[in-house]
Design brief:
The chain is α+β, with helices and mostly antiparallel strands. It has helices spanning about 1-25, 30, 60-65, 145-150, 215-225, 235-240, 345-355, 400-405, and strands at about 55-60, 80-85, 90-95, 110, 115, 115-120, 125, 135-145, 155-165, 170-180, 185-195, 195-210, 255-265, 270-285, 295-315, 315-330, 335, 360, 365-385, 385-400, 410-425.
């Protein structure tokens, strides 16, 4: 009897095996042919993550779609060693963990090879780059210093943003977002082809009303009446969530920005490719100090850029050339009497000392920044186990700001630089 039961159990187990095999998530032949991801931001040469000299995080379009970010900087929450934040409702920022302030810097950011650092802020104007999260194909983020590959501005790291190419997608894509804080986002991307190449145009509109304000006067009155305990000064009132009613006045840190971008890729033969991009961005961003909410004013910005690139890939070598020009024009006015700029001053004190209470522009004023950059690099294989890359570049940055520099002309800074990387595969992997 025991032997018969054992045979029946074995037969039932064998019968169940095909069903289990069909439902199990086993590897199959398609996994063998999956592309091995490569990165190039670590050394400017295509490498696998395991052979890169730097620690690099890759954020793909699929990851961005799963995250569903509302703004570009929210994408960088996926990367370790970086933090993304909002300075106010209209000005986002990205930085390393040990370098955060109102103007995060020392971080090299490139969009399709174009450096977007602006000396007029001085930081990256994330809302004026001419891209939205839906336009991004991939992002490579170097964690830690990458000065040898991308220059002195890459002390904290380097971010290389690559947008979706008309070579890889077709049709028209439309995304829209409507939400709190009067958020209204619209992005349209359309691809087309022409004789000898492919093109794409992108347009977008973004707006929101910024962060909600807080009723300081009501908080201080309640504190004075003794009905609230533990509130000692204005800063405590600002931190207390119970005194941020929905009907309080908003801080004037709203955003409204539009951009239009056209790019094209030409492939005249099997070894050469040319790419071009022309973009324009126009917006206004509420700017001010959180300690003085009533002094927020719009910072109006207009930017345009043009980039071109050439690539030639042969069996044993590769040429790359890149040229870009970027211009940004901004204006921020804060017209106030002198007595309004310091809590210790009153009109009577100022008039008694100066004879008047002068009115002046205490904002950032008119600023104009220009950036021109050109690079040429050559990659070759001197022997079978060695790859080498050499290159040189020139960068010119110009800034004009009478308010900040006390100079009505341009202040120029130009850099001539070179770079090189060598990879030696000592043994077969």
């Amino acid at each position: 009897m025991t032997t018969r039961n054992t045979l029946l159990l074995a037969a039932a187990s064998l019968a169940a095996c095909p069903a289990l095999a069909n439902t199990a998530n086993y590897f199959d032949e398609t996994d063998v042919f999956t592309d091995i991801p490569t990165i190039s931001s670590g050394s400017r040469m295509e490498q696998t993550p395991s052979t890169s000299p730097s620690s690099v995080t890759v954020i793909t379009a699929e990851m961005i779609e799963a995250l569903a970010p509302n703004s570009l900087v929210e994408v960088f929450r996926l990367a370790p060693s970086y933090i993304s934040f909002y300075i106010n409702g209209s000005l986002p920022g990205v930085s390393g963990h040990d370098s955060t302030d109102d103007d995060p810097r020392r971080l090299e950011v490139r969009v399709n090879g174009r450096s977007v650092y602006l000396p007029s802020y001085p930081t990256v104007a994330w809302e004026s780059l001419g891209i939205t999260p839906d336009d991004i194909e991939r992002i490579e983020m170097v964690r830690g210093s990458n000065v040898p590959a991308y220059g002195s501005n890459a002390i904290m790291g380097a971010i290389n943003i690559i947008t979706k190419s008309p070579l890889k997608e077709s049709g028209t894509h439309i995304t829209s977002t409507v939400g709190d804080r009067n958020t209204r986002n619209l992005n349209v991307r359309s691809n087309f082809s022409f004789e000898g190449g492919y093109g794409q145009w992108r347009m977008a509109h973004r707006e929101n009303s910024g962060f909600s304000g807080f009723d300081i006067e009501n908080c201080l009155r309640t504190q004075a009446s003794g009905t609230v305990f533990g509130l000692d000064d204005i800063s405590d009132c600002q931190k207390d969530p119970s005194y941020r009613p929905d009907n309080s006045d908003n801080v004037d840190d709203d955003t409204e920005v539009d951009h239009l971008v056209l790019n094209a890729v030409l492939t005249p033969n099997l070894t050469d490719s040319f790419s071009f991009e022309l973009g324009y961005s126009d917006g206004r961003f509420g700017y001010g100090d959180g300690d003085a909410p009533d002094e927020f004013r719009d910072d109006e910005n207009t930017s345009w850029w043009i980039t071109s690139a050439w690539n030639r890939t042969n069996e044993n070598d590769q040429w790359d050339a890149h040229f870009s020009f970027y211009e940004s024009d901004s204006n921020h006015e804060l017209i106030l009497p002198l007595s309004a700029t310091d809590s210790d001053l009153t009109p009577a004190i100022v008039i008694g000392a100066l004879g008047e209470d002068p009115i002046a522009n205490w904002g950032l004023g008119q600023r104009k920044a220009q950036s021109l950059e050109a690079e040429l690099e050559y990659q070759f294989n001197p022997v079978a186990s060695v790859r080498a890359l050499v290159g040189a570049g020139y960068k010119l940055q110009r800034l004009k700001s009478k308010q900040q520099l006390n100079n009505s002309g341009y202040v120029d800074n130009d850099i001539l630089y070179g770079f090189s990387n060598i990879e030696w595969q000592i043994s077969e992997r």
